[in-house]
Amino acid sequence: MSEIRWIASLVAKCPLINPSLLAADFGNLEREIRRIEQAGAQILHLDIMDGHFVPNLSVGIPVVEAVRRITELPLDVHLMLSEPQKYVKPFRKAGADVITVHIEVLDDPRPLLDEIRQLGAAAGLAHNPPTPMEKSAPFLRDADLVLTMSVMPGFGGQVFDPAVLEKIAYIREHSAPNTLISVDGGVNENTIADCARAGANLFVAGTSVFGTADYAERMRFLTNAAMVAP
Ligand code: DX5
Ligand code: ZN
Hints:
- This protein has 10 helices and 8 strands.
- It has helices at residues 6-13, 29-38, 61-70, 88-94, 110-118, 133-136, 164-174, 192-198, 207-210, 215-226, and strands at residues 16-19, 44-49, 75-80, 98-102, 122-127, 145-149, 180-184, 202-205.
- Strands 1-8-7-6-5-4-3-2 form an 8-stranded parallel sheet.
- The longest helix is centred in the last third of the chain and has 12 residues, at 215-226.
């Protein structure tokens, strides 16, 4: 566990906004990363899609490698893949610090979560809006990060589903104290406080950060909005 002790230091800094590069300008990725670093980001979220688990494609291993070369921020890699077990090693090698896999494609996620940790990364477990809490509930203490999707994964810019707040509250109650409780999809100035009150501490935000002109101002605004007691 020592290699992932940094997770505890990240939890201590929460609430944190986790900017999702999916909404960044990929034609100017280095500039976008510098701007988001200067805006105070402490972590970066990268969405990996296979066109099978989700009806879209995004970026893969070479882009994670490229991002790794230009920033020291922890990279939180969200694998929206039907066969994540085939790819955790190459993504770790590419520089992922957190690797999140979906419960929907794993009967028992524990061996894969263990493998991720053995590779020296933090292990995340994600679930989609229609997936009942009972599916992930037995494994909450096997993950360093639990990611609740508040939209169907595959695209940025969708509308937040408030039904997930109940799941976040359950996770808050049943996970270990140093767990990153993350929410992803439609997180913005209107939805972030409800997520924080429910117990989330790490807020993936794509459009609501990269879709604005002043990233620093927006990161401050969203962070302040998340500073409500659960
Ligand atoms: C959706 C991705 C998200 C996405 C969120 O499939 O997992 O991380 O970037 O985008 P917004 O914040 O625009 O809803
Ligand atoms: Zn994501």
